Task: inverse folding
C-alpha cells in the first residue's frame, strides 16, 4: 500500500480502539521495551501523545525512564521550518498543547540532536523493512537525520507490520526496532 492509503486505514483502526484497549496495549508495549538492549544508554527522546489522535500512551514508558534515572527529552515543533527543538523534561517543565493538540514544552534546557541516544518514534504504520508512515509532515525524518548514525530508533505501534510501504522516499529514515503489544520487530 501507499502512504496515503495507510494513513487512512490506520487512523480509522485507531479510532475504533476503546480507551481501555489503548491503555492495555500501551502498557504491553512498555513492558516489551524492557527486553531491548537499550538500557545502558542515558539520553532518551520520547513523544507526548496527541490523545485526540488516539496515539499510543507513552506515560508508562516515561515511568520506566524515570525509574531507571534516564535523561528524558521531549520536543517542540516549528511548523514554519519543519524543525524540532528538544528539551530536557524536568519537574519544572511546563507542557502546553500547540494548535495541533501536540503537548510540547513551553521552554527549558535545550538538548542538541547529536546527544540523543534512543528515540521513541510515533507512527501510524510500518513495514517489515523498518519504514514508517507518520502524518506526512517530515518532522521525524528531518530530526532523525540530524541524530548520530548509531542513535537507536524505536517505533511504537498498536498494530503489526505491513508487508511493504510502496512509496518510501530517499530521505525516509528507517527504524531499528518497532514494538507492538505482541511483538518486537528488529530491522
Result:
Amino acid at each position: 500500500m501507499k502512504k496515503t492509503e495507510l494513513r487512512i486505514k490506520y487512523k480509522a483502526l485507531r479510532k475504533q480502539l476503546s480507551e481501555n484497549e489503548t491503555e492495555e496495549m500501551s502498557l504491553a508495549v512498555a513492558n516489551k521495551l524492557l527486553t531491548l538492549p537499550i538500557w545502558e544508554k542515558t539520553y532518551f527522546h520520547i513523544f507526548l501523545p496527541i490523545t485526540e489522535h488516539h496515539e499510543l500512551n507513552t506515560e508508562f514508558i516515561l515511568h520506566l525512564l524515570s525509574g531507571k534515572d534516564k535523561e528524558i527529552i521531549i520536543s517542540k515543533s516549528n511548523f514554519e521550518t519543519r524543525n524540532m527543538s528538544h528539551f530536557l523534561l524536568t519537574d519544572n517543565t511546563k507542557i502546553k498543547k500547540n494548535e495541533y493538540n501536540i503537548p510540547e514544552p513551553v521552554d527549558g534546557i535545550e538538548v542538541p540532536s547529536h546527544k540523543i541516544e534512543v528515540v521513541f518514534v510515533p507512527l501510524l504504520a510500518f513495514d517489515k523493512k523498518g519504514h514508517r508512515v507518520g502524518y506526512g509532515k517530515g518532522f521525524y525524518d528531518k530530526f532523525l537525520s540530524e541524530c548520530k548514525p548509531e542513535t537507536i530508533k524505536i517505533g511504537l505501534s498498536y498494530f503489526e507490520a505491513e508487508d511493504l510501504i510502496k512509496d518510501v522516499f530517499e530521505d525516509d529514515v528507517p527504524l531499528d526496532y518497532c514494538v507492538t503489544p505482541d511483538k518486537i520487530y528488529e530491522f
Notes: The first strand starts at residue 43 and ends at 45. The radius of gyration is 15 Å. The chain has one domain: 3-186.
